[in-house]
Design brief:
With 218 residues, the protein is an alpha+beta fold. The protein is built from seven helices and ten strands. The chain is 32% helix and 25% strand.
């Protein structure tokens, strides 16, 4: 995840180059990703930085397209406003993460990528792989994941009505879900002693990455 944290401190070209550097230093391609190599990524940098980038919005668009070329659903760019929405959503939403999936009509649909176990959405019956169809009666087809997440936000203990399609061919269900203020920690750990040894081994299990994961991991 690439977040713009110093909007006024860097030029548009520097911002694009910083995003490129994050991937260059940290990206680990797997079978689900498109072919990737340091040489290919260097060529991508040279291609996008050939000319002057005249606006911040243009820089954001270049970064999004550059990251999309990786074919990795977990690598994406967040503008300051999008990051603010995501952080707020983690605290006042219903405990689900959405992903935009292209459809056969050239648009895209919103699929549930992850859920907070025992969170409001999970308890209501939403499952990973479900498609979000509407929020409070408003069709979300063609909307971004961040726009839909914003629609799911609201004051604590208020309700939001969502319509989901379960799986690829499953039934469509409308459900009323109560928002929660603070997410449960996604970090779980245990310490186990080794057999015939005085030392111990620590195990950490992170169920999802959200606004409190980094803090609770420390």
């Amino acid at each position: 995840m690439v977040e713009e944290v110093r909007a006024e401190a860097v030029t548009n070209e520097q911002l694009v180059e910083e995003a490129w550097e994050v991937v260059n230093e940290s990206f680990l391609p797997d079978a689900a990703s498109r072919p990737w190599s340091p040489e290919m990524w260097m060529q991508r940098k040279q291609d996008v930085l050939q000319g002057t980038i005249k606006s911040r919005a243009r820089a954001h668009d270049i970064i999004r397209k550059m990251l999309a070329s990786l074919g990795d659903p977990y690598t994406r760019f967040l503008s300051p406003s999008e990051f603010s929405k995501m952080s707020k959503y983690d605290m006042t939403g219903i405990g689900l993460n959405l992903r935009e999936i292209p459809d056969e009509n050239g648009s895209f649909k919103l699929m549930v990528l992850g859920l907070l176990l025992d969170g409001p959405a999970y308890s209501a019956g939403v499952r990973q792989g479900d498609e979000l169809l509407s929020v409070n009666g408003i069709d979300v087809k063609g909307k971004s994941a961040f726009d839909a997440s914003s629609m799911l936000q609201g004051p604590k203990e208020t309700f939001v009505t969502i319509k989901v399609k379960h799986g690829d061919c499953g039934p469509v269900e409308s459900m009323k879900v109560q928002r929660q203020l603070v997410t449960r920690t996604p970090v779980f750990y245990r310490l186990e002693k080794r057999e015939n040894n005085d030392s111990s081994v620590g195990y950490i299990h992170i169920t999802e990455f959200n606004a409190v994961a980094k803090k609770d991991l420390r």
